[in-house]
Amino acid sequence: MSQPKIINIVSGKGGTGKTLLTAVLADLLGNENHSTLIVDLDVFVRGLTSLLYYHKKERIELIESNEISIADFFIDKGDMERSGSHKIATSRYRTFDVAPSVSRVDEVLKFTDLMPDTKSEAITLLNALIKKVHNKYDFILLDSRAGYDELIAASHFISDVTICVEEEDSISKITSNNLINQLKEDSDSPIFRLSNKTRTESVNMEYSSGGVEYLGAVPFDMDVMRSFGTKYFWDDISRTIYKSSIARSWNNLSNKLGWNITVDEFRSKPFGNENVERKLQFFSVKDRILLVYGLIIGFIGAIYPLIDLMWIREVLKEPEGMLRVVSMITGALGFSMAAWVLFKNKK
């Protein structure tokens, strides 16, 4: 089996949505029958491990007795014999596997016990970790924590590509710039930027400073925010522009790197044009449909009484007055539906 492709996902600051984006990307790859593993290197925040905790019906102990967590692997300096474990813990989550950061979801760690002392030590440990699991996977995604340290430098060094996830605000861009400049000093591995949770209609994809390209813009999506953490989340997210945008960004990356490994971008577009939905990103898909088609029905109903369409009356065999009344009522209902959506979402 060929060596897995290692994708390092980082961010300059916390809160960019990096972990969820990583999970959705892994699910997209898994749906294409690519064996995929996410290694949760964010051992203190442990967002992916928390997802696994809920997936396992809030089971506190996340690993088996003969397995070792990512945190313990680093604490033991990669010495599996010291722990008495035989393998790195991995658990199935949807279409991909997760290597949990800790053995217990509520585990308390000491930074000084865990972190490698130097970048070279971190590289050695990460390479040893990958060697323990690489035979099973086509892709290994490293969910690194926000910011920069020896482990972040090492994760970039051993990876085929690093994706820096950022938001569109100035602070996020500054922290991303700082992180990217640091990573460039560590390795010449390719780096790309991905703008997440965007709130404007489009993002300028031409970035000249430092020559770091954007892969795309993943828009803020109300359905993602509302359903996150619920049992309906993965069903809801499959219909969103959020997921299709991640798929499009991945396909862009695959094309740039010459991998030719694509994922399905398709989603049903209720308006035929995704740009309309991007303008209504603060509404759920259901509310977008009610709002847009409510306005369309309202305008048609309002306009009909103002024009003379004799052929419609002849086809329907209805008197002129009746059609005008029905049209006005239909228009009022359409505008009422749109107004209800706006009032419900007024915040």
Structure description:
The model has no long low-confidence stretch (mean pLDDT 83). The chain contains 15 helices and 10 strands. The termini are far apart. The strands form 2 sheets. Strands 5-6-2-7-1-8-9-10 form an 8-stranded mixed sheet, sandwiched between helices. It has a two-stranded parallel sheet with strand order 3-4. With 347 residues, it is an alpha/beta fold. The protein has 2 domains: 5-270, Rossmann fold; 285-344.
Please provide a brief summary of the model.
By secondary structure, the protein is an alpha/beta fold. The protein has helices spanning 18-31, 47-55, 70-75, 80-83, 111-114, 119-133, 150-158, 170-186, 222-227, 233-237, 241-257, 274-279, 285-303, 310-316, 320-344, and strands spanning 5-10, 36-40, 67-68, 87-88, 91-93, 96-99, 139-143, 161-166, 191-198, 214-219.
Layout of helices and strands:
Elements: E1 5-10, H1 18-31, E2 36-40, H2 47-55, E3 67-68, H3 70-75, H4 80-83, E4 87-88, E5 91-93, E6 96-99, H5 111-114, H6 119-133, E7 139-143, H7 150-158, E8 161-166, H8 170-186, E9 191-198, E10 214-219, H9 222-227, H10 233-237, H11 241-257, H12 274-279, H13 285-303, H14 310-316, H15 320-344
Parallel strand pairs: 1-7, 1-8, 2-6, 2-7, 3-4, 8-9, 9-10
Antiparallel strand pairs: 5-6
Structural descriptors:
347 residues; alpha/beta; Rossmann fold; 2 domains; 8-stranded mixed sheet; 47% helix; 14% strand
Shape assignment: elongated
CATH class of the largest domain: Alpha Beta
CATH architecture name of the largest domain: 3-Layer(aba) Sandwich
How many distinct folded domains? Answer: 2
Which residues sit in consecutive blocks of at least 5 with pLDDT less than 50? none
| CATH homologous superfamily placement of the largest domain | P-loop containing nucleotide triphosphate hydrolases
Strand content: 5-15%
| CATH topological fold name of the largest domain | Rossmann fold
